[in-house]
Amino acid sequence: MVGSIGVVMTSFSCLGLMDMLGIESKVYTAGPRKVGMNPLTRTTEEEEMDLRNLLSETHVEFIKYVKERRLEKIKEEENDDLFSGTVFGLARALELGLVDGIYTVMQDKVAYLPDGRDQV
Hints:
This protein has 5 helices and no strands. It is mainly alpha-helical and about 120 residues long. The two termini are about 25 Å apart. The mean pLDDT is about 85.
């Protein structure tokens, strides 16, 4: 499989469990927006928007990076699929121009015999 060209950020919340157990989180920061994505506190709408914007900006930068480096190889007409976050099998990734070929670590390992003679 070939990794997708997308951006993901995961988190979780312990608030329900903490409420059930009577646990209160205390977070001290220098900066009112320093504590975003803390699973021990509620996420504000402003923090949610900041994170969505960050993910969007990162996705745009990632797409630009890929296009600059693979411009002559990627299938431009399939950009929607390419940059959607979809994971591709090797045959499809080759077809789309996301990879140049197949390579495995084992190719390096079996290329040399223990006595150091190059067998490739």
